[in-house]
Design a protein that fits this description.
Elements (H helix, E strand, L loop, with lengths): L2 H15 L18 E5 L5 H10 L3 E3 L8 E17 L5 E16 L2 E2 L4 E10 L5 H26 L8
Helix pairs in contact: 2-3
């Protein structure tokens, strides 16, 4: 084996030994406590939660007549866009986008555990001369935050108290 191959192998082993893994790969992958889920009143998050639950090989029920399905119910969804920094001449140079989500899990009308709270922030640089591009960038950031919120919510579902 040449020195470069050995060096590459040592770097790969060192990185994997410290626990590094790509986003979406590895980590805790516990089964969800219920095999059927219903998503109610989640507005913008519904599509993202549906896709994330499907990745965990569970049944997602869209109708309101699923007695054996656990329900993810939106308690709070807040979006805010605040000034992050100003330039020397007093114009906005950066915004901070914040998404706050709270959901509760119910099964047969009974709360299961505490509500799940997720808060996400993204920074967006801002220039007046590229307004249309910044609107598209802002929408892409919101979509990314919704996706990330759905991932975090589903990742926390295995820790709720299941039915006995």
């Amino acid at each position: 084996m040449s020195f470069s191959k050995i060096g590459t192998l040592m770097v790969v082993l060192a990185v994997s030994a410290c626990g590094f893994h790509l986003k979406g790969v590895g980590g805790v992958n516990q089964p969800l406590p219920y095999t059927a889920w219903q998503i109610t009143q989640t507005q913008a998050l519904e599509e993202y939660l549906h896709d994330e639950l499907k990745r965990h090989s569970v049944t997602v029920v869209r109708s309101g007549n699923a007695a054996d399905a656990a329900e993810i119910h939106l308690l709070k969804l807040e979006r805010s866009r605040d000034v992050g920094s100003l330039s020397r001449i007093g114009t906005v140079s950066e915004y901070i986008l914040t998404l706050k989500v709270a959901v509760a899990v119910h099964f047969q009308g009974e709360d299961k555990g505490e509500p799940i709270f997720v808060t996400l922030q993204r920074k967006q640089s801002y220039l007046d001369n590229d307004l249309f591009g910044k609107q598209q960038e802002e929408q892409a950031l919101w979509d990314d935050m919704y996706q990330d919120a759905a991932v975090q919510i589903v990742r926390r579902l295995p820790y709720i108290q299941a039915h006995q």
